[in-house]
Design a protein that fits this description.
- The protein is an alpha+beta fold and 387 residues long.
- The protein has 8 helices and 19 strands.
- The strands form 4 sheets. It has a 7-stranded mixed beta sheet, with helices on both faces.
- The protein starts with a strand and ends with a strand.
- The structure holds S-adenosylmethionine.
- S-adenosylmethionine binds next to strand 10.
Length: 387
């Protein structure tokens, strides 16, 4: 008994960008046959189709950096059909390979299926081209758990970060990122108003970004209109050039803005699929000062002054935290604001990296390269894809 392999080579495409489009559940009805005829809903990581024949469910292999797009289809009678689908790098671009197993069916039936699959892969190729050209269908992926940064945040962010944005403060960050990029293109996740991305682009690197908050992007584009930014969730969004970046970076503790472990894992996978072989992913992240929490206490102050009082509260069971800020306004009154995060240890990040096919290359306490020790309060970690 042999299987039939339906292959399609997509010239000029990277495996990463094809994976990104094919793995997007919201785009599935645009290329996979049979999914356009019924009511589609999302149930977590499953796509559910209520068709006249009954309920059909599709579940893909978890996000990964290996181009594995295997998916199980559960038919109305409960039968589960495994559909192995891979996207592979190809000398001319990327190659999709779908495996059809006869499973006791007559040859003619398998041949008919192969025709349908070939048509699916052809539609998928056209869809990848449309997405790359910025003409893809509009989809509404589920909202991430991150707090959404609004107009007011965008208006005040640059002033609030002025001390962290001077050439002296940013110098070591830019030096390290520039060196790690080795002249290749760079993607910043959560690019905000361009605090790091703009000076990095000014060093001559091709920098793009992914950012959830449209007002933050507007502010960035007021300063640097030509810096390409995709509006979306850094755990799922696809930037043009996916699969070709030398460097993806996520700094200033921002992985913590994704408040579930699943989203943080997905963020690593998303970073990995944007990288070229041998590319690097850099994360800058603080270490929560849990040693300052005596038994029974939930809050740690981090800034106590006349103008600002800041403290963090922690739930050490769920790894959730909230930063609380009381900031004095010009009229003397105090404004209260919060931001929420999930804290995560370096070892857990290393596991997320391993799940995404990345290997730790270096870990230092800061961008200048200070050794990472048991007393470090934050770390800069660099992982690499194979190749
Ligand atoms: C602390 S700032 C980011 C740090 C910034 N890169 C810097 O170095 O100044 C938080 C930014 O992350 C963005 N953000 C938060 N969650 C996000 C997500 N899931 N996807 C993309 N951007 C996100 C926010 O909109 C905001 O612009």
């Amino acid at each position: 008994m042999t299987s039939t392999h339906v292959s399609r080579v997509l010239p000029g495409r990277t495996a990463g960008e094809v994976y990104g489009v094919a793995r997007d559940l919201d785009l599935l009805p645009h290329w996979a046959h049979g999914l356009a005829e019924g009511d589609l809903t999302r149930d977590g990581d499953r796509l559910v189709l209520d068709s006249p024949m009954g309920r059909v469910q599709v579940r893909f292999a978890p996000l990964n950096a290996y181009g594995v797009l295997d998916h199980d289809v559960t038919l109305p009678d409960g039968t589960v059909v495994a559909n192995p689908l891979r996207v592979l790098p190809h000398p001319d671009g990327a190659e999709l390979v779908f495996t059809l197993r006869p499973l006791g069916r007559p040859e003619a039936e398998v041949a008919a299926d192969a025709v349908l699959v070939a048509a699916d892969l052809e539609r998928l190729e056209a869809l990848v081209a449309r997405v790359a050209a910025g003409e893809g269908p509009v989809t509404t992926p589920p909202a991430p758990s991150s707090d959404l940064w609004d107009e007011e945040d965008a208006r005040t962010y640059d002033d609030a970060c002025a001390d962290l944005s001077t050439p002296q403060a940013l110098g070591p960050t830019l030096d390290l990122l520039e060196g790690l990029a080795e002249g290749g293109s760079v993607l910043e996740l959560a690019v905000d108003t361009g605090r790091v991305a703009i000076p990095l682009a000014e060093r001559g690197l091709a920098v793009s970004g992914i950012e959830l908050s449209a007002p933050m992007i507007d502010r960035l584009h007021e300063k640097r209109p030509d810096l390409p930014v995709v509006v979306g969730d850094m755990a799922t969004a696809t930037a043009p050039g996916c699969g070709t970046f030398s460097l993806v970076y996520l700094v200033f503790n921002t992985i913590g803005n994704l408040r579930t472990q699943a989203e943080q894992v997905a963020c690593f996978a998303n970073a990995a699929r944007h990288l070229r072989p041998g590319g690097r992913f850099v994360v800058e992240l603080w270490l929560p000062p849990l040693r300052k929490l005596p038994p029974g206490q939930e809050a740690v102050p981090f800034d106590v002054g006349d103008e600002h009082l800041g403290f963090d509260t922690y739930d050490v069971v769920t790894q959730q935290g909230t930063s609380h800020h009381y900031t004095r306004e010009t009229d003397g009154r105090f404004r209260y604001g919060t931001s929420n995060f999930r804290y995560v240890w370096p070892a857990e990040l290393d596991l997320m990296a391993a799940l995404a096919g990345l290997t730790l290359e270096r870990r230092t306490a800061d961008f200048a390269g200070a050794p990472y020790t048991g007393e470090s309060t934050s770390h800069v970690s660099v992982w690499r894809t194979a190749g």
